[in-house]
Amino acid sequence: MLNPTTLELIGDREIVIHRRFAAPARIVFDAYTRADLVARWWAPRALGVEIVSTEADVREGGRYRYVIRPHGGEPIGFNGEYREVTPHSRIVYSQVYEPMADLGEVVVTMTLSEADGQTTVRFSELCPSAHVRDGIIASGMESGMRNTFDQLEELVIALGSA
Questions:
Q1: Distance separating alpha carbons of residues 47 and 98, to the nearest angstrom
Q2: Which of 32, 26, 30, 38 lies closest to 67, judged by CA?
Q3: With a threshold of 0.90, does the pTM exceed it?
Q4: pLDDT at 1 over 70
């Protein structure tokens, strides 16, 4: 059985997500930052979404862009800039949902902590407004996020046993 993902709303602008992965932090970090590995898990396949492209220059000041396509829909891009990168333990980056770029960016702080070969990841997503946060939650983000994190866990388990 895969590990559960928890989601908590803090204040009126923040989403906090926790997930434990059955793999060392270096493997989880690589799967989250290497574009070739991101392409294997980032789109929620169970919801009929496919990944179209992944580009990532993972360094402070580097940029990324991921493009997905919902079943039968038009491509949708997400992009941002890496503000802080500490391998295997912390990443701070911005995220812009391109169809609504005028609403501003979400700032994500991802921390990884490893114990006994398992990695707990905490994501803090600070939204530019309560309106944006409420829209993210209303969009069905939680279902897609749970699906992609299950895919990520399957990938890191496979990478760890390879």
A1: 20
A2: 38
A3: yes
A4: no
